[in-house]
Amino acid sequence: MKRAIITVLGKDKVGITYGVTKILAENNVNILDISQTIMQDMFTMMMIVDIDKISTSFDALSECLEVEGKKLGVDIRIQLESIFESMHRI
Fold first, then answer.
1. Own/partner pairs for 64-69, CB < 8 Å, 24+ apart?
2. pLDDT digit string (tens) for 53-78?
3. What confidence category does residue 81 fall into, taking pLDDT thresholds of 50, 70 and 90?
4. What is the model's pTM?
5. Bigger pLDDT: 54 or 82?
C-alpha cells in the first residue's frame, strides 16, 4: 500500500473537510485515518490516505489540494508517508 499524509491548517470555516474529502473521492484516494480539531478559531486536520489506486498523478492531486486550500483560505499539504517520516524522525 502506498500512503501519504495530508495536513490542513487555517482559520475555521464551513466546508473545509468537505472541500478536501471531495477532491480525494474524485481522485480515488481512500482515507485510512483522520484527526481534526479546532483550537480557538484555528482548524487543524491530519489524514493518512491510501494513494495506491489514485486516478491522477501525485503532483496533480497536490495541485488540486493547493488550489482548494486557497479557495478555502487554509494551507493544505500532501506528502508521501516515507518523506513525512524522514522529515519528522529524531
1. 64/23, 64/27, 65/6, 65/20, 65/23, 68/19, 68/20, 68/23, 69/8, 69/10
2. 999 999 999 999 999 999 999 999 99
3. confident
4. 0.88
5. 54
Joined grid coordinates for residue 4: 501519504
The partner residues of 31 in beta bridges, in order of sequence, read 49
Which grid cell is 10?
487555517
Is the separation of the CB atoms in 43 and 16 below 8 Å? Answer: yes
DSSP letter for each residue of the chain: --EEEEEEEEE--TTHHHHHHHHHHHTT-EEEEEEEEEETTEEEEEEEEE-TT-SS-HHHHHHHHHHHHHHHTEEEEEEEHHHHHHHT--
Residues 5, 83: contact at Cβ < 8 Å?
no
**How many C-alpha atoms does 51 have within 13 Å on its Cβ side?**
21
